[in-house]
Amino acid sequence: MDLFAKLKMNMGPLGKHSEFADGYFSFPKLEGEIAPRMKFQGKDVLTWSLNNYLGLANHPEVRKADADAAAQYGAAYPMGARMMSGQTSLHEQLEDELAAFVHKEKAYLLNYGYQGIMSVIDSLLDRKDVVVYDSECHACIIDALRMHLGKRYVFPHNDIESCEKQLERATKLANETGGGILVITEGVFGMTGDQGKLKEIVELKKKFDFRLLIDDAHGFGTMGNTGAGTDEEQGVQDQVDLYFSTFAKSMASIGAFIAGDPEVILFLRYNMRSQIFAKSLPMIFVAGALKRLELLRTQPELKDNLWKIVKALRKGLHDNGFSTGKSNSPVTPVVLNGTVGEAAALTQDLRENYAIFCSVVIYPVIPKGMIILRLIPTAVHTLQDVEETITAFAAIKEKLTSGVYKNSEFAISVGE
């Protein structure tokens, strides 16, 4: 069969919905300044779909730092990979400040979050090593593990009893191969909003010999007393061996970093192919990240206001009979049951009749028959925004109860 013909016959579990979803439910265009209120298809909407947790995307100091860096350096500098010709003092300064912020000895700056964590995992492991990981780890981690030539064991989400059993299996195999064991989980799981059980996992170090890597993309800047992350929140910073986060969430930018033992970071610097053979992170993003990190440290009111909005939004949803699952982070999932068609119908109702824009999540991202309306509160939302949103959700609650969406022409035509 012709390769392209095969692809056209099976567009994949999400792609098969593209005829009605493209441009509206998937690949929608939000226009205007990054803010709680933006335009969608020419209409003003209250937006709960941006990972701009601390509101830094349009913070005046951030905008000025970005503009100044662009004027001073342009988009090209530095030219070349860091190992060859792309190293600068600002790259090193940012790494030092990031390491200090998350209480690690050394950090290494990465160009992207998705590519970064894949490359870290790929570099750390060889075929003798064994991985134990949480079943709900982000797609970037799963993709990295697909490249791993050794054995991997998965445990059901946050199931510590199962994690221990997988560690028993991993230990037996590692003793045979002469390899090491890496446990991977997340600080905050981005879809469900619950924290990884870091405290319980590090307790297992008393019984097993392993190293722990956490991806804290949604916890960096939002969790812990200083915003240093979920391991700070749970009091286990000194027992997390490798701490990873992206700049795409709280930092509202591009880039990522990995922090940990100096010799391990040195190993990664000389062995991460994606960094050795890729152009250095442009100075615009480096200088901008330094300003963003400064604001994380010096303006705790940003995180405080984020949590004020989180608590108000969550209380309003709970008071109106909605479940937010086990979320104990800013990620606020409204968890419902229903078909793809119902998900589309209620999302369209929220956008068209109540001017509320939030992301809708369906299978295969989550199990079949489950719907998540994913709300992301930010420090620049207001209590008025929350009140307006709760009023809209109270209205759709009545429609959910009476089966309006299930029986809608749209839901019936779309089906599952």
Q: What does this protein look like?
A:
The chain is α/β, with parallel strands linked by helices. It folds into two domains: 3-57 and 300-414, Aspartate Aminotransferase, domain 1 (Alpha-Beta Complex); 74-298, Aspartate Aminotransferase, domain 2, CATH 3.40.640. The protein is built from 17 helices and 14 strands. It has helices spanning 3-9, 12-15, 18-21, 60-73, 89-101, 113-124, 139-147, 160-177, 198-203, 230-233, 262-271, 273-276, 283-298, 300-319, 340-353, 383-402, 409-414; strands at residues 30-31, 37-40, 43-47, 106-110, 130-134, 151-155, 181-186, 211-215, 242-246, 256-260, 332-337, 356-357, 359-361, 370-375. The strands form three sheets. The chain has a seven-stranded mixed beta sheet with strand order 4-10-9-8-7-5-6, sandwiched between helices. The longest helix has 20 residues, at 300-319. The radius of gyration is 22 Å and the shape is globular.
Strand-helix topology:
Blueprint: H1 3-9, H2 12-15, H3 18-21, E1 30-31, E2 37-40, E3 43-47, H4 60-73, H5 89-101, E4 106-110, H6 113-124, E5 130-134, H7 139-147, E6 151-155, H8 160-177, E7 181-186, H9 198-203, E8 211-215, H10 230-233, E9 242-246, E10 256-260, H11 262-271, H12 273-276, H13 283-298, H14 300-319, E11 332-337, H15 340-353, E12 356-357, E13 359-361, E14 370-375, H16 383-402, H17 409-414
Parallel strand pairs: 3-12, 5-6, 5-7, 7-8, 8-9
Antiparallel strand pairs: 1-2, 2-3, 4-10, 9-10, 11-14, 13-14
